[in-house]
Amino acid sequence: MRDKSLQIVSLSKRLESIVELAGHGDTLCDVGCDHAHVPIRLLQNGQFRKAIGMDVIEGPLGKARGNLELYGMTDDVELRLSDGLDAFQEGEADTLVVTGMGGTLMRGILLREPDKTRSFNALVLGPQSDPDKVRAAVRELGFSLEDERLIYEDGKYYPVLRAVVAAQHSTDPQQRREPDLQGFRSAGPALFPPEIPEKLCREAEDLFGPVLLRRRDPVLREFLVRRIAVLEKIMNSVSLAAEGQRTKEKAGDFPPPTGQKVFGFTREEEESEESLKEEDNRLQDKRQPEERQPEERQSGKEHSDKEYPEKKQLEKKCLEKKHLKKKHLEKKHLEKKREIEHSLEVYRAALRVFLQMEAIAGK
Prior knowledge:
The protein is of the alpha/beta class. It is built from 15 helices and 7 strands. A 7-stranded mixed β-sheet has the order 3-2-1-4-5-7-6, with helices on both faces.
């Protein structure tokens, strides 16, 4: 028996948005239910009649049992130890909630048993990272994004999305994806300026959310402006680092300070010059006193090279390692620069959606 005298369970802004987007139904399935706060709140609100709460760890389920007993919902919410949807059977629930995990893990849960995922009428998903991977999985499964939120809480941005059945889960993958494109590209004026490539538009949609972009969500706009500023600073730092490295090479100071590690080079490799000096001293000590006369030491590098082949080999090895470090650093700088440049392209394309509408409104 539910204890209606108890206060409504309190939730964070992120979980409040999950509750709002869950809508109404008969049975909810909550994967990664943690302490079961979301199912409890949904049943308190009368949005669902019953729920299934699942988690991969027994600890949170123990906390959830205590909360269900406290709120008198042990008969209304069934708890199961489950990795993703493993313990779920098709038809047991009409709405799926998945929160509290990264986008890569969430995508794996959705796609691992696609028939189970497609048995739901609606998906409510709150990835804590890589939302583009989750949106791509939703599209692949034949669902269409119906609503999205971007929540700013405790210094972080959290996307929350609701997806519903599209085109009756047609067996043709292209037909399954069509409602998603129709829903976000065809209604009203074009979302992106025409000069932005189609591939870049799709990448921006998956990363930031077509619904948020079409709505010109103010939280998303704030996020884009902040992130672009951060990426520009990183780009500037990478450029300065590359320039500083070139300056060091010109000054003959390419090797980093002793003990530092540069992109996988070991301490032993970093100290190659010191090893060279030690080897030189060792060879000097081996010579007989009469062999170390001042006039012989002044005979020049040619004589030294002939007398000490080990030293010459060590010098060659040291120069080769310097060259390898230089090439490795150049490659890393170039890869990082290209990565940031592409990210800036995507973020700026998304921001132009806002700027385009603001320009139209200002006319």
